[in-house]
Design a protein that fits this description.
The structure is a single chain. The protein is α/β, with parallel strands linked by helices. It is built from eleven helices and 28 strands. The strands form seven sheets. A ten-stranded mixed sheet has the order 8-7-6-5-9-2-10-11-3-12. Helix 5 runs parallel beside helix 6. The radius of gyration is 24 Å and the shape is globular. 51% of the residues are buried.
């Protein structure tokens, strides 16, 4: 396929990674908007698809998408491990700004907050039906809290909440929205339900039965370790270990599931109106006995999962939509943070102006006119080590590390131990020319100290310890606990964190039957310029004898963005007070 480098150079406008990239309002409110299917594989290496050079594992459905669509040769995950990579994907922020920047060392799984806008929220605001089936990857594993998928923009969720649970392909339960649902066939070590099959069934049902535009985020845990898969017969004759046969079968099963999703789109007559995106979340793993070198899972790249060399962070990325996405190949350096603005632009939705990502929408649909990053940034601080990744890092796998790419230059630096505040001269710095050396084998830091110093400054400046988000959408501030017979002060806000004004924005609060709600301050409606906030205070009286565990408040806003109605919702569920005298205005869990 022809390269699109000429388009990228001609159409690009250089911009820093954190530069503001804004979307114009929709030109015509009635313009037909595409359905969007985003499929995210788990630990799928750059070289594990036929379209990226794989010769041992079979991936015909994905190879067909690559042939008919746009194949990215220089797409990058948000991080070399799961949780921070998915946080970048969901929230449009790189690892120096994102809420979740590393996998946990101990204690709870990293969590999102009410201030973290996912890519589902802007789409739901303009009428998209949103669903997530598979691995969420953030804690805590409880209902009615701000890091739950339902609270972060997904109307329907079925799957694993935290990533430890997702290591079990035959779990004893999965979550359906706010409810933990048992899988009786998997009790006591049973294998009645293979979780990825259950996710696929939900995807097919959602595609066939959803009217109007939809966003489907399909996140199976394939091909993550362990190599636990129902059928390995396609590879049983190969002279590989059982773990490698299982891994190959997982990759091919992923491909089979993609084929089933595509069939559902075609059978329902929705393929022509759908954009399909497929990516891996980081480099290939070497866990559970899998040897990625058997398959050249990193392709020509250096490194594996957990490395900041390109083998750990460069991933397969495909975009497909005949008649909408122009087929071909692009070498535009693309980061997971680009997905949020891209999905918003494809859907004709407003988006937060403080994201790090730059939209790919024009590149996908016209081949030109996209904006490129001055630099991409990654951060790694992980508690685990594997032998091949440790070898590639020269024994530094358990140290904190950063990397940046600017045009063809790539720098990687390792801190002394895990001290990010250490002076620059105590870090080990490496520099590579990716045009001449895509395998990152020749360190040019000594030959080009000026380039190395410039990229070190980029990495230093990319990290913001406490990155404060511009408010976007609706928020509720309320006490966690309430008691019957008492009144409480509640604050509801709707904030225009986009770059374009929202007209005639209205906000209202509703609660359980019998609860008395009275607005005590703030207007009912307002025009909100970029950065504007409509804030209301409410007095909420809980009736004596009320069932507090059923108490839920909802704040709903509506407004006009470029001729299109936008609606946001926030929910807050109360729990019974643990002690008398609960403070009014305690922090909310929304």
């Amino acid at each position: 396929m022809p390269s699109r480098r000429q388009f990228l150079i001609a159409g690009a406008t250089a911009t820093a990674l954190a530069a503001t990239a804004v979307a114009d309002p929709p030109a015509t409110a009635g313009t037909r908007r595409p359905n969007i299917v985003l499929i995210l594989a788990d630990d799928l290496g750059y070289g594990e698809l036929g379209a990226y050079g794989q010769r041992l594992m079979h991936t015909p459905a994905l190879d067909r998408l690559a042939e008919e669509g746009l194949r990215f040769t220089d797409a990058y995950a948000g991080a070399p491990v799961c949780a921070p990579s998915r946080c970048s994907l969901l929230t449009g922020l790189h690892g120096g700004h994102a809420r979740v920047r590393q996998n946990p060392f101990s204690g709870p799984q990293g969590a999102l907050t009410a201030d973290d806008t996912s890519f589902a929220e802007p789409l739901r605001a303009v009428g998209y039906r949103t669903a997530l089936y598979g691995k969420w990857g953030f804690g805590p594993e409880t209902a009615h809290q701000p890091s739950h998928p339902n609270q972060r923009g997904f109307d329907d969720f079925y799957g694993y909440i935290d990533h430890d649970h997702a290591h079990d392909y035959y779990p004893e339960y999965l979550w359906h929205n706010e409810t933990k649902e048992a899988l009786p066939g998997n009790a006591d070590g049973g294998k009645g339900t293979f979780a990825p099959d259950a996710f696929l069934a939900r995807c097919v049902d959602f595609i066939k039965n959803t009217e109007g535009p939809f966003l489907l985020y399909h996140a199976p845990n394939l091909p993550h370790a362990p190599s636990d898969v129902p059928d390995t017969s396609e590879y049983d004759a190969e002279p590989w270990s059982a773990a490698d046969k299982g891994h190959a079968a997982q990759v091919t099963l992923l491909d089979t599931h993609v084929s089933a999703v595509m069939k559902a789109l075609r059978d329902s007559g929705k393929a022509a109106d759908t954009v399909v995106l497929v990516a891996g979340d980081n480099g290939p793993h070497e866990e559970g006995g899998v040897n990625p070198d058997v398959f050249r899972a990193s392709g020509p790249l250096r490194g594996y999962k957990r490395n900041l060399y390109d083998g750990g962070i460069r991933v397969p990325f495909l975009a497909w939509s005949p008649g909408r996405v122009l087929p071909g190949t692009t070498d535009r350096p693309t980061h997971f943070a680009d997905l949020l603005p891209t999905l918003a632009d494809l859907a004709g939705a407003p988006r937060p102006r403080d994201v790090d990502g730059l939209s790919l929408a024009k590149l996908l649909t016209t081949g030109t006119g996209d904006r490129q990053h001055d630099h991409l940034y990654w951060y790694r601080n992980d508690p685990w080590s594997t032998p091949r990744a440790a070898r590639e890092d020269g024994g530094r796998i358990l140290t904190l590390a950063e990397a940046t790419r600017g045009d063809h230059w790539k720098a990687v630096r390792f801190a002394p131990d895990r001290d990010r505040t250490a002076p620059d001269d105590l870090w080990h710095v490496e520099l590579y020319d990716l045009d001449a050396d895509p395998g990152e084998r020749t360190d040019l830091a000594a030959a080009h100290p000026d380039v190395a110093a410039r990229l070190v400054a980029v990495m230093r400046d990319a990290w913001v310890e406490d990155y404060r988000r511009v408010p976007f959408g609706v928020r509720l501030t309320a006490p966690d606990h309430v008691e019957p017979g008492r009144s409480y002060e509640i604050t509801a806000t709707v904030a225009n964190g986009s770059a374009v004004s929202w007209r005639d924005t209205r906000l209202r609060l509703t609660g359980p039957r019998g609860w008395r709600l009275r607005r005590t301050s703030g207007p009912a409606r307002a025009d909100l310029p970029s950065g504007g906030v409509l804030r209301q205070s409410w007095r909420v009286a809980v009736p004596a004898g009320a069932a507090v565990e059923d108490g839920q408040l909802k704040a709903r806003s509506s407004g006009n963005w470029g001729g299109r109605t936008i609606r946001f919702t926030a929910e807050h569920r109360f729990v019974p007070s643990l002690a008398a005298g609960t403070a009014i205005g305690a922090p909310a869990r929304t």
